[in-house]
Amino acid sequence: MNKATRLATAIAVLGLAAAAVPTASASSGPRQHVPARHVLLLSVDGLHQSDLAWYVARHPDSALARLVGNGTEYSHARTTVPSDSFPGMIGQLTGGNPGTTGVYYDDTWSTALLPAGTTDCAKATPGAEVDLTEDLDRNKDSLDAGQGLAGLPGSILNLTGDARALIDPSKLPVDPTTCKPVQPYGYLRVNTVFEAARQAGLRTAWSDKHAAYDILDGPSGTGIQDLFAPEINSQAIGYPAGEDWTSDNAATQQYDSYKVTAVLHEIDGFDHSGTHQVGTPAVFGMNFQSVSTAQKLPASDGLKGGYTAEGAPGPLLARSLDYVNTQVGALTSEIRKQHLDGSTTVILSAKHGQSPTDPAALTRIDDGPLLDGLNAAWKSAHPGAGDLVVHSVDDDAMLLWLSDRSQAAADFARSYLLRQSGTGNDIKGAPKPFTASGLSRVYAGADAARYFGAKPGDSRVPDLFGITDYGVVYTGKQSKIAEHGGALADDRDVPLVVSGAGTGHGKHVAAPVETTQIAPTILSLLGLDPDALQAVRIDHTRVLPASR
Prior knowledge:
The chain has 548 residues and is an alpha/beta fold.
């Protein structure tokens, strides 16, 4: 099948209203008669499909209701596993799952790289943390990540659009072959929608929460022309010392509003700062954090966080949904004001959900003693050995990387964890028992690799992946009531709405879809070949189906 035929098939599957199918590939020139000339992607982190349905039912005249009514809603969409921000966002913009993209979380381990700061690569032992969090910033305590802007936070829109310049190279893992730091974009194994758009001569922009989202530039390092990335985990200006922009939901909304302003400038044809006229991007967008913090915080601004009952948003979350609705309304209104509504498609989804949505199910477990016990048991059984766990990520799933990558070691870890019981605490902080370390299923060694579709022994795949019992959150504190990262329905069941140019109005698709399908769909909307994406070819990711 040639590229023109593949593209025609993709457009037919999505049901796009194109007058003619271009014969262009992603590397060709001007596009004619394409379904859309601009795609605005909005990720509302933490948002469930049930949250969107709850809000639209109660606010039928809202901006979110209009977005759904003017497009196609996919009511059974699921994000990646693990359901973390990085694999979730990367999946939407590459078409690939973690086993293909090589990105499992925002803080992982690679047995192929050397630790940050390594200079004598010939003598160094491979094995390094790959940190894609605020820790990479030149100054993680500053909203500008260390650029040195005066007058923050009001001056934040003057932040550079070259987020890579905000990363401290000394904090990056080192490539043993070149003995040079591995930038986030160089860690990604497949190309991105932004790179495909750039190859076609189209403009790109994105707004997100860390400079490390430079990973979305893709392996070429040139995918995003304007990356606005104020640091969300910096000291929140005007708030008590030690509180970042996620510690208070009003602060999170303030932070999100900076990104909304940046996108409004881009809709108007300027860069994110609003000072340089560059044209409206073909692919652009942002993530919202305010829903996520409203789900995780027990209370904020005098309002109770999370859910009052199973699936019923409490007052803080309801306020955050109102906030997102207002901002979505501002963005779509600006699109109409600039007469771009006939050529712009808006895609609404989420990098991840949040679990649990039933407050009665919450069981907080301190994972520290579990891992300490595992290491002690390993050393007792193997005199002279060091710790078995070299790196762990435990939010509402358990990902472990081991010093011994044998199947026997992975089985040892699995067996130990499944034998552990203890006492955590519930939504009110009262004691609550748990068994099997709070895990319902554990994939170890080759089974973990198969679960993720990776080859056994892959340098990045976790040696153990544990799926929790519903409601389990690993934390030694009581400062959060929900988390994400796992494989349960509340982690993964997110909204997916494709609305505007080139889409059906008021359509509904109940068939299961994946958020990785957003990536080829964006290229189809822009008249480009979905197969320009490497992960689409590897994972056989389909363009989103038309409504039936």
